[in-house]
Amino acid sequence: MHSIRLKITAMTIFAALTSILVMGSIGFLTLSRESDQASVEKMNLIGENLRQTLNAYFGSLQQSVEMGIHIAADSMETMDAGLFLHSADASRKEYLDATLARHCEDVEHALRSIAGNTSGVEAFYYCINSELGSGEKGFFWTREDGESFVRQEARDAAILNMNDTEHTVWYYAPIRAGTAMWTGPYTDAYQGVPVLSYSAPIYSQGFLVGVLGMDILMDTITQQIDAMRVYDTGYVYLMEPDGSILYHPTLMSGYSQHDFDSNFDDSLFQRSSSGDQLIRYTINGEQRQLAFTTLANRLKVGVSVPVSEISASRRRMSIMILGVSAVLLAVFSLLALFLTRAVTRPLKNLVDASVRLMDGDYEAVLDYDGKDEIGILTQTFRHMRDYLKLYIQDLNSRVYYDAMTGVRNKGAYDISLGKLNGRIRAGEDIAFAMVSFDCNELKHINDMYGHSQGDIYLKTACHLICQVFKHSPVFRMGGDEFAVILQGDDYREREDLIARFDREALDTAQRTEPWTVVSAARGMAVYEKGRDTDAGQVMARADQAMYEDKRRHRAREKEGRGEK
Fold first, then answer.
1. 301 touches 225 (CB < 8 A)
2. What helix, strand, coil percent values describe the chain, rounded to 5?
3. pLDDT at 330
């Protein structure tokens, strides 16, 4: 007895422990992978939301400058073709000054209105090219105390140094590029604070007229960055297009991640975003995870989070998995002890049950193949069960199937009818139909050709019924009568199947041997909930329809013979 108990206990605990270890390992690896992917997606989403917010802000400024460019172009359409040609004529210079003054006045008036309706604009300007030979310098407006704009002294292009990129990049960069562009951040000489500019060169008749643009404060961007919260202590920072730090909550500008982690690949920032890549680096002894994306002005937004914060939820889940695993192992161990006692205790009862099995209990489950006492008894049970199963199956085939046609007999029909009636009484929403068949020529064939040909005639008719209604049970009710219960697809296609039976039965009329010609009256009735209280009523209507079909058949035969 103890050997069986020991084996069952050991196998159960081993299986439980193995399952827990395998599933725990798979769960931990899956959790780690999903946690990393979720952190990447979350950080990308934070970066993308900030990018969309800032790009909408930048886009508003760009649109305002583009409007100014169109206004400047419209204003220059009325200028003389040779306006910008150098001439020593004083009147010519006077005319140039007057024309540019009107031009600047038109642009200034429009740009004041545009800037006033553009969020975040700190300054707007139009700096006229000093090489045109005009005394007109343009205009320069700044916002005072974050409220209204105040006109300042216009910037003089003649004193702008192209090598002073700290202060004049807003002017020379778009001229060199030949198109509107973002510049900065740089320290504005007048305001003395870092700004970003979107400026564009204005041309007329092939000559550079000046540079038109608007400024926003760098603080406007950094305030939005500082307001971002990522996990517990994560932060957002701003980078140059090459990845060097432009603004960082804790680090000085000008550094790159490579300065803190030699394994960091700065070429990574040649891409527009980090995408789905898991990027980790070490700074000041702390491992962090990075995601980045590129703004419309080519600056990059970085999102940095300590890996320890990302892993916190994974650690909590791992602890929970270990706890659950320990509980499961304890439960399985107790269950194993209980099962072994349950198996060893009823050994005597199992021996007694072997005698009862031989008396008819052939459905007993016998799947134990051990070499111990239970195995011997199980083997005895199995032999008796298999023998009895074969015996009962053979008996059922004789009781419920028609020996001549091979289809179900009247006994099987009664069982099927009982099941349908049970469902009807239970109030189930079922759908079925019943078809009744009666072979018209059996007596004639028996009398004329013998009963052996009559049997062939019945088999031929039965074969056709089974062929047409191949998804439904067919029953031989006795003699030359058959019945079919239609459900499922056959029920839904019942009219087509009846028509098919009629066609194929009619096709057999071309045969030369009468016992191979199928002539059968048929009738069908559909179960109607509320009208039919049992399936027998449906069959009664099907029989009635069959007899009506038989009467029509006989009438056609008489008409064919010329009888009345």
1. yes
2. 55, 20, 25
3. 75
Nearest to 448 by CA among 517, 515, 518, 521: 515
DSSP assignments along 500-516, one per residue = HHHHHHHHGGG-SSGGG
Reported in sequence order, the residue ranges of 21-115 that DSSP labels E, i.e. its strands, are none
**Mean per-residue pLDDT over the chain, rounded:** 82
CATH architecture of 410-561: 2-Layer Sandwich (3.30)
The C-alpha atoms of residue 79 and residue 70 are separated, in whole angstroms, by 15
Q: What pLDDT does 1 receive?
A: 44
250, amino acid identity = T
Sign of CA dihedral 187, 212, 215, 235: negative
Q: Where are the beta strands (DSSP E) in 307-456?
A: 433-439
The whole-number pLDDT of residue 348 equals: 47
pLDDT at 118: 87
Burial class (CB in 10 A: 0-12, 13-18, 19+), 365: exposed
Predicted pLDDT of residue 392: 57
Segments in the chain below pLDDT 50: 1, 345-346, 348-349
Neighbours of 547 (CB within 10 A): 14
Would you say the pTM of this structure is higher than 0.85?
Answer: no
Under CATH, to which class is 78-220 assigned? alpha beta
Q: What is the dihedral of CA 270, 276, 282, 287, to 10 degrees?
A: 160
Residue written as token pair 């108990």: 5
Residue 345 burial (C-beta neighbours within 10 Å; 0-12, 13-18, 19+) = exposed
CA distance 413 to 473: 9
Give the closest residue to 457 by CA, choosing from 408, 403, 515.
515
What span, in angstroms and rounded, lies between the C-alpha atoms of 372 and 156? Answer: 108
Per-residue pLDDT reduced to its tens digit, 248-293: 887 777 677 666 666 677 678 888 888 888 888 888 788 888 898 9
Distance of alpha carbon 209 from alpha carbon 133, whole angstroms: 11
Look at the chain and count its residues: 564
Q: Which of 32, 22, 41 is nearest to 314 (CA)?
A: 32
Nearest to 104 by CA among 129, 85, 87: 129
Same topology for domains 78-220 and 410-561, yes or no?
Answer: no
- Whether residue 439 contacts residue 546, with contact meaning beta carbons closer than 8 Å, is answered with no
DSSP summary character for residue 230: B
Q: What residue spans define the domains of the chain?
A: 78-220, 346-400, 410-561
Closest CA to 169 of 160, 158, 156: 160
Alpha helix locations (H) across 345-409? 347-358, 373-400
pLDDT of 466 reads 94
For 476-522, what is each residue's pLDDT tens digit?
Answer: 988 889 999 999 999 999 999 999 999 998 888 888 888 988 888 89
Residue 288's pLDDT is what? 87
Helical residues (DSSP H) of 140-216, grouped into ranges:
165-177
Element (H, E) at 12: helix 2-76
